[in-house]
Amino acid sequence: MVYNDTDNSELVTPTGEKMGIYRDDTFRYVYAAQFFADPNSKAGVYSLAKLLAYNSPIIQNGVIIKADDDQNGIFDSKNEIVLPCPRYNYIRFEREGIMLTMASMIVDIDLIADCVIDCLSKVEANDPAYEKDPSLRVRNCFMGTELYTEILVQHDDWAAKKNTDPKMRKATMLYNRWSKSDAVANLCDAVRVNFIESVPMPKGVSVSADIKAKGDAAGRQLAADRGDEFVEVVYLASNWEVLKEKVYPYKIIMYQMPVDLITINNGKKVLTHCDLHKSPNGQRYVMSVGYDTERHPIK
Prior knowledge:
This protein is 43% helix and 17% strand. The strands form two sheets. Strands 4, 5, 6, 7, 8 and 9 form a six-stranded antiparallel sheet that branches. It has ten helices and nine strands. The radius of gyration is 28 Å and the shape is elongated.
């Protein structure tokens, strides 16, 4: 967050200098303050878990603007904006190091385990809010797994309880389930899919019975290969585009036609832009995904 005369004119030093902070400190500082206010509380541990999640290499919610000279506390030399103090970036991460040490020594290990279990249980919860915003599942996944690796298994009482306490074993089972790379990839992919643009159902054109029969069969095969349920093929042209070699004698490579493949994926009707190909002799039909590989939800 850079000093701005209109939006944050209060960001000044005691001597009146314009002051700036790193953008991510707008939440890092808040989470740290909530933890230090009451570290042995559920709210305090959750604040720590949120901070750990944002520190995860995958989320990488880090510094957006870098200071010109962090060592000497200069944020922006050109606009004469300073940081709250010299070595500000080092100090704020040192602050978070103190939080980790405190959590592994003075915070009740049962409270930490409860938070791990709660976060990771929410990942698989049938919650309408999570269906609407899949990023909530990702956040809870990283909150739980980071809290497990950075705090729970580092806790002074972990060694004595890890094999005998049912709560610790429950936390470990959930961690093992949601720390696997394929599980994390599926969660992140759901977030990506949530931002894919919806499209209206296309208006196709009529094609010959032979093209439709063979094209639909190619569409069924592509849908099956992608793990989808076939619905229909919408033909966007009635004539073939002829693809030829670029050198003499200019032999025909294949015939091509644009189509949209309509399928059911995860219970939702989706559209994928595809191309229908026909061999030069007309005997073989194959459908392939076009340049836009996404499954678009249909409005």
